[in-house]
């Protein structure tokens, strides 16, 4: 189970956020995003909750003594592991929230930074002296976005599986 928790944390964070180390003293942290939002960005603001995680390869992450690999990783997660969201604010700040709304979750996380979404659907985040940019796909009604990433998983049998993973976030409506 601890492997699954560690996998979930790294899966959620690396989907959009990556932290890099650099021993070069000339390295300068990227500046926070500032300025007015574009129309595209204004439409994107709000709370986006993780809705699904699907892989191309079947993977079994649950240590339940049953060999039941599936491409639906989200269904293999606990309620706390499924509790992931991004909140994109109109002042360019954002928060990554993990395990913050479900009762009794261990390892709650809130990470904050700044964001930008350009016309080519590249979502860029700046946090902790790092910048990560990812192409996302927003549906026509602006109610869901997906991000595709390749991950290396370790299943319950300690077998490494590399697979393209699609995470879908759904926008919360009031």
Provide the structure class.
Answer: mainly beta
Stretches where pLDDT is under 50 for at least 5 consecutive residues are 1-20
Overall form: globular
Radius of gyration: 17 Å
Number of strands: 9
Mean pLDDT: 88
Count, helices: 3
- Give the distance, in angstroms, between the N- and C-terminal Cα atoms: 35 Å
Major beta-sheet overview: 8 strands, antiparallel, barrel
Order of helices and strands: HHEEHEEEEEEE
Strand order of the largest sheet: 1-3-4-5-6-7-8-9
Helix content: 10-25%
Strand content: 35-45%
Protein name: DUF5004 domain-containing protein
InterPro entries: DUF5004 (IPR032168)
Keywords: Signal
Pfam families: DUF5004 (PF16395)
